[in-house]
Amino acid sequence: MYDHLKRLAIGLGNFIHSSKRDLVRNGADNQRWIQELKERCLLGIRGGLESHLEPDVAVRFVESPYNTKTVGKGAGKNEMSCRVWGRADATRTISVLADIVDGSWNSACGLPWSSSTMLAFTEIERNQKHADELVLSDFKCGLIVPIVGNISSPKEMAGFYYGAAGEPPHYRLADSPIEYPLHPSNAEDVRQTRLLLDLFTTQTYESLAISIDAVKPLIYDWADIGRFYGAGIELMSLLGTPGTMPGFGGYVAANQKADNLIPTKMLLEGAGVIVTNWWGEPIDQMKIMDRMYVAIAATNPLHKHLMQHLSKTVRLP
Known about the structure:
Elements: H1 3-19, H2 30-52, E1 57-63, E2 66-67, E3 77-78, E4 81-85, E5 92-102, H3 104-108, E6 116-122, E7 139-146, E8 159-164, E9 170-173, E10 179-181, E11 183-184, E12 194-198, H4 205-221, E13 224-226, H5 231-236, E14 239-240, E15 248-257, H6 258-270, E16 274-277, E17 291-297, H7 300-310
Parallel strand pairs: 1-5, 12-13, 12-15
Antiparallel strand pairs: 1-4, 2-3, 5-6, 6-7, 7-8, 8-9, 9-10, 11-14, 15-17, 16-17
Helix pairs in contact: 1-2, 4-7
């Protein structure tokens, strides 16, 4: 149904990998290095879009970075950036939600393995909603491109995760026709799988304290907890290629940003993963500037365990 968007995702995945192929740090400090990396990835995104879209399709490029000038929880805020890349004779538009380098802190500090470029696309239409009114269900294709490749031992080729709404996702090797279907863990016992836990996006110390209390039973019950500091790769760690069983069966986040959830939810649900808020409700109406207390699990028994504890939490802003 969304073959044209999946072809676009494949083209972008290849462009983004190619755009940083010869990028070398050469002693750049953290701030300069992450800026260079973002600029290079953005060039790959734009080049891929312009190469793979028909000339009558303009691009509305949307970001929602968290910006702060002072130190302290909740001292910053999300700010929407919306740019239109016009094309000659454009009569239609595609909206692209982007996190150009998710996990930028790790990348800046020399630990890029958990960082990725995350993109979500709407359908190509003559009339688009205002960016403020776009919701998760308006996006029909997702793409997660790891920042690095060829670093594992034994070596594995660079690649990317992609998928369309309602369809099984795939991992595709860069610059190759080879791709693999993705699947979640089949674990049903929380004592036999691990949970990724992300509470750092809470914006007040009060909500952080409530969130810590909410997840304490999960820490006791699940086999272990983890954190990679890049939501894209964390959530893709719930999926595995043939012959591998994912080591993580769940993901819980407090007050998570929409740009981390919109592209990943499509891929996860396409593989059969369950995605709700902490109270068991769907998140399809989440807007770009919204934040969500999200509970994600590979199987129904694992999700029921999350709900058993998280649903008791008072509603948080």
